[in-house]
Specification:
Elements: E1 2-3, E2 8-10, E3 21-32, E4 35-46, E5 50-54, H1 61-69, E6 76-81, E7 89-92, H2 106-111, H3 115-118, H4 126-138, H5 154-167, E8 172-176, H6 184-199, E9 203-207, H7 211-217, E10 220-225, E11 227-232, H8 234-237, H9 240-247
Parallel strand pairs: 5-9, 5-10, 7-8, 8-9
Antiparallel strand pairs: 1-2, 3-4, 3-6, 10-11
The structure holds adenosine-5'-diphosphate.
Residues 32, 35, 37, 55, 57-63 line the site of adenosine-5'-diphosphate (ADP).
Length: 276
């Protein structure tokens, strides 16, 4: 789907088999005092979608994430979440909420995802720890589970937050600029984890400034600039007029060579028995 500032001009026919919607935005408008951050945004995310949300600074990417999380109330329009379970949305924040000096382990942070199942004043039980360790295993961090969170690299910390979402049994993962401050190896590991989780059925939405990543690795790209400019497969969205509309100029640097990506394997794998 490609839209102009006023109204959609082209609808790309979608012949793929439809899967159930998990998120539906309808004419969503979000403002901060006198700033319109999102205007009349309409889209549907289907179960299993793998979506990169792109756009320049101030395009409304973080605002959209907050609107999906229900942290911001739309001025008009609606955002509907159809996820499974009580807490379908798992969030990997841009600036981590955990104080890195605070003596809390990787396992403790991932266990926060179980709070709803555990209840605030109870101790986690065997089932909870098993779910936490399984989640850490899925993100390749089981061997680091007793580490203090502050000892981890930026990329590993992002994976702890993904584990927290998995432990809470989220089926939609929202990541806000997870690659910022993460080195190249950490980024590659993070992307491998996201690819695997998406292949296993998790719906993933990630805001990013990295257009190379967005167009090469994701199944769909959402181009935002206050309005939804385009939403579709990378090939559908990768069009000069879309990019001009989003970025005010033609960008061609990442056009070629969608092949030849080097995958870096995660080396912390292997989760021994679940002790606690
Ligand atoms: P992005 O994540 O794409 O950089 P944001 O969603 O952060 O964009 O911001 C969208 C617009 O809303 C920008 O114009 C920004 O200045 C404004 N904005 C974001 N947060 C606030 C806020 N708390 N108060 C006022 N304006 C805000």
């Amino acid at each position: 789907m490609i839209a102009q500032q006023e109204a959609p001009i082209i609808h790309i026919a979608n012949h793929r088999k439809p899967t159930p919607p998990v998120l539906e935005a309808r004419n969503l408008t979000v403002t901060y005092q006198d700033v319109i951050a999102l205007e009349e945004v309409t889209f549907t995310i289907q179960r299993g979608d793998y979506v990169a949300i792109i756009g320049p600074n101030g395009a409304g990417k973080s605002t959209l994430v907050k609107a999906i999380l229900g942290l911001l109330r739309p001025q008009t329009g609606s955002m509907t979440v159809h996820g499974r379970g009580q807490t379908p949305l798992g969030y990997v924040p841009q600036h981590e909420a955990v104080n890195l000096q605070f003596p809390v382990t990787v396992r403790d942070v991932a266990a926060m995802g179980r709070l709803r199942q555990i209840g605030w004043f109870r101790q986690p039980g065997k089932r909870d720890w098993a779910a936490v360790d399984e989640a850490l295993d899925r993100v390749g961090l089981c061997n680091l589970r007793q580490r203090q969170i502050g000892e981890l690299s930026g990329g590993q910390r992002r994976r702890v937050f993904i584990a927290r979402a998995l432990a809470q049994q989220a089926d939609i993962l929202l990541l806000d600029e997870p690659m910022s401050g993460v080195d190249v190896t950490g980024q590659a590991q993070l992307m491998d984890v996201l690819d695997t989780l998406n292949a296993q059925g998790l719906t993933v939405l990630m805001t990013t400034h990295d257009l190379d990543l967005a167009f090469k690795r994701f199944g769909k790209v959402m181009a935002l600039r206050r309005r939804l400019v385009a939403f579709g497969t990378p090939d559908e969205v990768y069009q000069p007029r879309v990019l001009e509309q989003v970025y005010d100029r033609t960008l061609t640097t990442w056009a070629d060579d969608r092949e030849g990506q080097v995958k870096v394997l995660i080396d912390e794998h292997g989760c021994p028995d679940h002790d606690h």
